[in-house]
What we know:
Layout: H1 2-7, H2 11-39, H3 46-58, H4 61-83, H5 88-101, H6 104-133, H7 137-145, H8 147-174, H9 180-210
Helix pairs in contact: 2-4, 2-8, 2-9, 6-8, 7-9, 8-9
Amino acid sequence: MQLQKALAYTPRTDAITETLQMVSGLLLVVFLWMHMVFVASIWLGSNAFNVLAHFMERFGLLPLAIVFLILVGGTHIGAVLRRMPKQYSEQKMIWKHAKLIHHGDTWSWLFQSITGSAILLLAVTHVAIVSFAGINANLSSLRVANPGFLIFYAVLLLLSEYHASVGVYRIFVKWGFVNRYSMKRVLEVLSVLFVIIGGISLAILYMLGASK
């Protein structure tokens, strides 16, 4: 009863918040996967990476991407925070509830909340670096060749893919669009695929930077 009270809102407000969280979350996942494909252009060599970076610079796509992240990301964070328990007693109640029922989806929701906080800090740092330093193969490879930045981007990659996978799973299962187990398997495959893509991209950038 207390848990229900802690998480309850008026039906209209709850529906609006849920919709904003769902739509903004899906948009951020699409952006993340497009970003992974962009970075993977380094597989074709520095020239291909630089051509794509120049295209973004020429048409002002980087500032647009930053505005997109601020607006959509801010909306997503706001919707999530509105639904999250704020008091320590409420948070303690949810942890106790998760331990009691031993349900995988409940734990994934808790870990998603934790990874979301970490991703916010890491993503803001990444956007700030890219905004001030610019995008090209030389700069990116030199950054990744730094052990600290290599770990930074590896952690961001893993957390982002986990967070995105759990988020998409919860949306589709909650609204009854797909079978729970089939969706989980599909998203696991996609997550592993994008982690591999991102890992190879980081490895290539590292080797380019280390050779300079």
